[in-house]
């Protein structure tokens, strides 16, 4: 790369290095950072060119595309990097933008989402005035982290679920939610990356978290002599189904002490990464089995994967990882048949309850409305106690056709943790 050579031996950098040998490490880091950023920028330009080739001026959205490009060229991109600091939050809310998929590219969809830096995201909402002039409404959002289409599951994990693993060894409850419309990447993130129909369960947040649990178990917390178990269940239409026990229906009981129990829930003892992968695979297969339209069904249920630490029989700490039902029904209230409408209402109710529970948790409120839905009832302990920590990853599809759903997802996430728009964060 000729450009890079010229740039690396540039006079200014060399003088700085000679002047102060002590700052060499910082200097190398700074250069690496600049190089990463430049590469990301080059990737982006290349992708944009490829995309523009596909979209001819006859495309009705061509004007919007050029307006978005005009906006983007003014941005100074500074994407999140693996080496960036990980914050220590009680509640973390972040957003992940997936790349356009083949189907969207074939339909010549245009991307309407830009991630300029590590914690901001912009939606370029296409609008048309009464006189038919087209314009963009550029809406900015800020979260704890913003993952762009180049971020892999390893990076998402590092900033979301990984910082929560220690919590369960310290007798707390950790919880991580994947929220978003169907097709936005929830299962890809939690269950493992897809290559076509094949899912690599080892490259998902369930498995990555379990792997770190084993690491800490045999290292920093060896003296505690804890054991590890896994549960995997689904909540569908307000009922709990055990994914490790042929989807048998389970009852949820709240005892006199306020403890919530799922009666008869299977808990598999696991000794290593391989055994966890087996459990994930079994549960995932159950989740999508037995329906004519497997995808449609799984998009209407919340899947809960739990890693339970025990000392003897006593529960020590619990990590709940949840692949939530698609949130798109929050808008489509005019669904066709009665059952679908009811399902939609149930999902709405649980997602609203979830938001309220996390908000109550962030205020340290003694009143957490966890009884408002089955989802929040079974996750009661996730919202209670000093040591509880939670993280939500809002997933979004980048295409223009998903714009409304994307904005709904972002507004929801914004309400879960109100960080406020930072006007200075985006150039
Ligand atoms: P959801 O569970 O939210 O309905 P999926 O996880 O099933 O969505 O993702 C829908 C499709 O998009 C899958 O084919 C998946 O492989 C792809 N996908 C999702 N997120 C990403 C990503 N970050 N990178 C590449 N492909 C992705
Ligand atoms: Mg899914």
UniProtKB/TrEMBL annotation:
ATP binds at residues 180-187. Its main location: cytoplasm. Residues 90-419 form the Kinesin motor domain. Residues 11-20, 27-55 have a biased composition (Basic and acidic residues). One of its GO terms (biological process) is egg-laying behavior. Belongs to the TRAFAC class myosin-kinesin ATPase superfamily. Kinesin family. KIN-13 subfamily. This is Kinesin-like protein. It comes from Pristionchus pacificus (Parasitic nematode worm). The lineage of its organism: Eukaryota, Metazoa, Ecdysozoa, Nematoda, Chromadorea.
